[in-house]
Queue: 2 jobs
Job 1
Amino acid sequence: MSKICFGMVTLTLFVFLSACNSTHNSNSTSADSTAAPMGQNELPVSHVKNGPPAVPAGAKVFFVNLKDGQTVSSPVEVKMGVSGMSVDSAGVVKAGSGHHHILIDAGDSVVVGTVIPADAHHLHFGNAQTEARLNLPPGKHRLTLQFADGIHRSYGRQMAASVTVNVK
Ligand SMILES: [Cu+2]
C-alpha cells in the first residue's frame, strides 16, 4: 500500500516537474543566453521548441539485416543500427542518446519533437534493445526505424529509416 502511494506521489511529482519544465522552456526562449546551467539533465537548447536535444551531424539509423524489398518470413528478425548517437534506456534525456522504435505501416518518420505513441504500430525499445522479433501477417509491410530521446520525443526524419518487406 505505502509503496503504491509512494509511486503515485513520485509520478505526480514527475508530471508536475515536467509541466514546470515545459512552461519554463516555452517562456524562456528569448532569454536562453541568461539561463544558468541547472544540472546534467537539463535539456540543451535545440531547434525545436520543447524538442529533443539536437542531432549530431551525420548521425543516422539503419536496418542492419533488412534491405528494401526483401522477402522475409514471420517472425521477422530485426537488427536496429545507429551511428553517431548512443542507445540508452528510456527515462532520462541525454544529448547524443536515445532509443529505437519501429513503426509498422505507420509512415516513414514521426515529426521531430512529437512523443511517439505506444500501440501495435509504434513499438518502443526503451530498454536499449537493438534486436526485435516481429510477428507480421503475410504481405507487404513498411517498417520504419525511428530514434527518439529518453522521453520518447522523436528525433525526426534525420533519425529515421524505412524498408518495405514482403512477408511470405
Ligand atoms: Cu520510446
Job 2
Amino acid sequence: MNRAIKIKLKNGKIVTIRRIRGTDYDTMMRFFDKFVRDPSTKYTSQYLGQPKKNKESSIALYDDTNNLFVGAWDGNEIIGISSITKILPKNRKYRGLSGETGTIILDKYTSKGLGKKLKSIVEKWAHENGVHRLEAGVFHKNVRSLNNLIKNGYQIVGIKHDVAIVDKEWMHEYILEKILD
Ligand SMILES: CC(C)(COP(=O)(O)OP(=O)(O)OC[C@H]1O[C@@H](n2cnc3c(N)ncnc32)[C@H](O)[C@@H]1OP(=O)(O)O)[C@@H](O)C(=O)NCCC(=O)NCCS
C-alpha cells in the first residue's frame, strides 16, 4: 500500500488508512499506551505497564520492506493497526513464504468493519509480496478475534495449552492459518 485511503466505518466515522513508517514511532507509542488501558487488551499479549518498545528496533521493524504495518488514523492519532511480518528462517526452502499477522484496534472503534478492512489490505500486500501462508495466534477466550478471523477465511490448525495466565486462568492459544491463493 503506497498511498493513504479514507474509509467510512459502520457508524459513519471517516478514518484514514496508510502504511506506518519509522517516523510514526511516537504516534505508535501513544496508540499502545491507549490500547493497554482498553478492556479489549485483556485477551491479547499486550498489558498495562509493559515496557515501551525500543525506538531503534521499532523504526527498523516498521521500515523493513519484509513487513507491513498499516494504521488507521482518526485525525492525528492512530486508532488501530494491522501487521504482517514475513517469517525468515535461514533455510531458504521456507524463507518468506509465511507471515505472522495481528490486528489491534481501540475498543471504541471495534465491531465497525475496521478489522475486516485492515485485514484485507495486509492480505493483499502479502499476496503481492510472495507470502502464501498467514498465521495468527489468539487466546481461546478472545471470541471476537476468533470470530473475526474465521469469518475472514482463517482455520484453526492447532492449539498451545497454558501459554499465559489472565485473571488466574490459564490461556490456551489457538493457531490459525489462511492460505492465500
Ligand atoms: C479482533 C479485532 C481486530 C476485530 O476487528 P473489528 O473491527 O472489531 O471487527 P469487524 O467490525 O471488522 O468485524 C468483522 C467480523 O468480526 C466478528 N466480530 C466483530 N465484533 C464482534 C463481537 N463483538 N463479537 C463477536 N464477533 C465479532 C464478526 O464475525 C464480524 O463480522 P460481521 O461484520 O459480518 O458481523 C478487534 O476487535 C480488536 O482489535 N480487538 C482487540 C484486540 C484483539 O483482540 N486483537 C486480536 C488478537 S491479538
